[in-house]
Design goal:
Elements (H helix, E strand, L loop, with lengths): L1 H18 L3 H16 L1 H4 L13 H19 L1 H11 L1 H4 L7 H20 L10 H29 L2 H17 L12 H7 L3 H13 L6 H29 L1
Length: 248
């Protein structure tokens, strides 16, 4: 019960900061919208090629953009944490009885909420089963929780934007490309597909695309949710330990 109360208190604080700065929501959704407007039409000529997933260009591309939004929307949260470290906010948390898990989870819930809120915009105009919407939002929320937890752990470890920034931006590109967000991995050479299968976001993309094609019972849906759930729990544990070391 104490963990839940502490998590809510931390979430409430950072959610208040979030709603007083709605420009971040607009900027967060602007990038995937630009991809949708400028890149999706380029997929139409290759949608009929061998190996391209069924469903048409937009049913293939929009699920990938949602996964991208979940990853990039949470990858930058470490910058604000480093700023708080510098200003002594984390230091002052030493005198509070708040759970170290709540310090991470409350923040991560705020990040998940903002990402899910932005995700509601992208599928507009596409036909998708209502239960499928719930599963997709669950997937995006888990991606946000996973990415935010890792981002907080890395930020607490390096304690510097100069180190954190290259780590985030260098790792994000191969993860993005090997998830099949921009171009489906089914049209990639076999050796690249083999490498991509170690990327958990690939399974999230496959699950989201199956849902958008109204294949809720597809094995990839359960597989994607399970993989992200397990990895999110591991990431939360790692992030909470980093908070414990930082504020203990």
């Amino acid at each position: 019960m104490k963990l839940l109360r502490d998590t809510w208190l931390v979430f409430e604080r950072y959610f208040g900061i979030f709603i007083h700065n709605p420009v971040w929501v607009a900027l967060g959704v602007l990038q995937p919208l630009l991809y949708l407007v400028l890149f999706a039409p380029l997929l139409k000529p290759i949608a009929a090629m061998r190996g391209f997933p069924p469903g048409g260009a937009y049913n293939v591309f929009v699920p990938g953009l949602l996964v991208q939004l979940g990853m990039f929307g949470a990858a930058g949260v470490g910058f604000s944490l480093i700023s708080e470290l510098r200003m002594g906010v984390i230091e002052r948390l030493r005198v509070t009885p708040v759970s170290r898990v709540a310090l991470l989870f409350g923040r991560a819930l705020r990040d998940m909420f903002s990402i899910v809120l932005q995700s509601l915009i992208l599928p507009f105009g596409l036909s998708i089963h209502p239960f499928g919407v719930v599963v997709v939002l669950l997937l995006i929320g888990l991606i946000g929780l996973l990415t935010a937890s890792i981002a907080y752990a890395v930020a607490l470890a390096v304690k510097s934007e100069d180190t954190y920034a290259p780590i985030v931006f260098t790792s994000a590109l191969p993860i993005l490309l090997l998830s099949g967000v921009l171009l489906p991995m089914s049209i990639a050479p076999q050796w690249l597909q083999n490498i991509a299968h170690v990327n958990p976001l690939l399974y999230a993309v496959d699950a989201a695309r199956a849902i958008f094609n109204d294949h809720l019972g597809d094995a990839s849906v359960g597989e994607g949710v399970l993989i992200l759930l397990v990895l999110s729990i591991i990431a939360v544990v790692i992030g909470a330990r980093q908070f414990g070391r930082a504020v203990a």
